[in-house]
Amino acid sequence: MPHQKQNFSQLRLNYNFNKQNILTQNNDKNLMSVNKKILNSIKQKPYFSKGDFVLYKNDCLKLLAQLPENSIDMIFADPPYFLSSGSFTCQNGRMVSVKKGDWDLSNGLSRDFEFHLEWTQACHRILKPNGTIWISGTYHSIYQCGVALQINKYHILNDIAWFKPNASPNLSCRFFTASHETIIWARKDKKGKHKFNYKLMKEGDWPEDFIKKPKLQMRSVWSIYPPKKEEKTFGKHPTQKPIDLLLRVVLASTDKGDIVLDPFTGSSTTGLACALNKRKFIGIDTEKKYLDLSIRRLNELIKKQKSKLKL
Hints:
With 311 residues, the protein is an alpha/beta fold. It has one domain (8-310): Rossmann fold. Helix content is 29%, strand content 20%. It contains nine helices and eleven strands. The protein has helices at residues 8-12, 36-40, 60-64, 109-126, 142-151, 198-203, 243-253, 269-275, 288-310, and strands at 48-50, 53-57, 72-77, 88-91, 94-97, 127-137, 155-163, 180-187, 221-223, 259-262, 280-285. The strands form two sheets. The protein has a nine-stranded mixed beta sheet, sandwiched between helices. It has a two-stranded antiparallel ribbon with strand order 4-5. A hairpin with a 2-residue loop joins strand 4 (88-91) and strand 5 (94-97). The longest helix has 23 residues, at 288-310. The relative contact order is 0.17. The model is unreliable at 1-30 (pLDDT under 50).
């Protein structure tokens, strides 16, 4: 019998709300039963916990240092781009400052690079031997991240060009319009055997990609629109990623039941992608308002999924 092409919408909405649902509210004393040992190693109480979706409010370096070695299957990181130092962009036809917050202020080339070295090193320790990390960034930061990965002995697997079809124009008219971000995918150890769900990436019924053709391997240029209006219902993070992007990342490199961590979780799009596909999620951020936004987004997701099951 020929292999049946998997439907993308089914992949996104594949939850059954039953007693085994990982989004079911757990007692604080029973956090993430499969990962109880991991969470018990963290001294502070979670900012929020619902089933296998857990958030912490703290500096990621402090939290990562408390996690057990070789305990995380996959990490997605969207670290500060350090753009908030006088730059401008175009928004709705107007020139606006790109200052995202004090957390995005540059401390100079050396200090910024030292930061990337520190957090990637901390992530390397907690990844499982065959674990992988994805890092998203623009040209302002991604090259420093790439060098930091190599210094910390990761093995780079791919660099993905996330092409944005509706990118903002360049106001100065002196440069090419920046219409993509780069995502680096790397393995913890050069000799490891990382997870890659090749068949799903090749044969899944994904939205049409830039230069993608049927029955060919998925390529490293992904055409995905920035977050849709409905993804910003409760507000947005200034570097919020679209759910379609994180769904692809999560489904490409993890299996059901795997533990995914986001050290700069923001509005927790990574966590929502995990919740939709039965992965366990740990998110870390320093900003209360973005953790609260994450909680509202998760609760809305649960509400929508319950409504769909009643139809």
